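Let's sit down with a protein and look at its sequence and fold side by side. We need material for that, and I hope you will provide a protein of your own picking. Once you have written the record down, we can walk along the chain together.

***
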Amino acid sequence: MGEAALDSILSAREECGGFTSFIHFCSLVDSRKVNKKVVECLIKAGAFDSMGLKRSQLFTLVQEKWDRLSKKNGKNTQQMDFFGADTWAPKEEEIPDAEELDRAEILKGEKEALGFFFSQHPLSAYQHIISQITPLDTNSIKEAETTDDVTIVGIVNGCKEITTKRGDRMATITLEDTKGIIEAVVFPDLFSKNLLVIKSDGPLVVTGSPERTEDGTTRIRAKSITPLQEIQNELEKLVRIKIDCSIFKKDHLRKLRDVLANIRGDSRVSLEFFRNGDRRVFLVPEVRIDAGKSATIRKYFETGLDIEVMAG
């Protein structure tokens, strides 16, 4: 927003003693300086949130009724009666009824208008999921003294593509979470496989090795990139392993433990033991497996065991 628009808004506010509503604002500011695009930017930034209307309603008002609401050539004809008195007031039916924009659209608008998220960070709603995936964030990863692979969850805040000497495309992406930002280097093979994922607006789970740059900052050499939604879907799955105790023996349990260890993943596991009509269920929180590989278990046990994958 330019200085002329800002000066016009401040001047109008000073003259009227404060805007009482969105329509009041539109009727007083000079639309030659505060045009439709400026007002839409202010809506995205949340500037009118205290005025009792949803952002969706504000956008509808601007898109459908801007010419009637806005002040032209120094005055708004709807405000004046024959004697020049300021008598016009908005009617209740002039406010459109609309469902609010979804949270993702609101946050995207704030980012476009302000350069940062204002009402809430997009990852805030996923904290309970993120805590199950990694204990690290962009701050703690920089302080971690480790050469082991690390995992970070973030949204792409920037992507700088590079062409290698061989003509392959790679990129340095900037990942943002609620604590800050960190760079991740994505080499050609991984970049080509995940180009659309990286360019999407969704949260990503990035795993790789941390490294220190010459200026002392930490970045990640990415080895895998996965949409958070995919991992969330896996976390919500439950693999039910049903065991017939009349057939399945203790030695089989040890073998089952080893098989599960070889198909680690993100899905929960429950063991259900059946004997003489009785059923006992045990959740195994320390064990998570790849639900897509659960059929592998059957290869090792011909009888006495059944498997069911349940979505969250």
In short: Residues 125-228 form a domain with the OB fold (Dihydrolipoamide Acetyltransferase, E2P) fold (CATH 2.40.50.140). The CA atoms of residues 252 and 266 lie 24 Å apart.
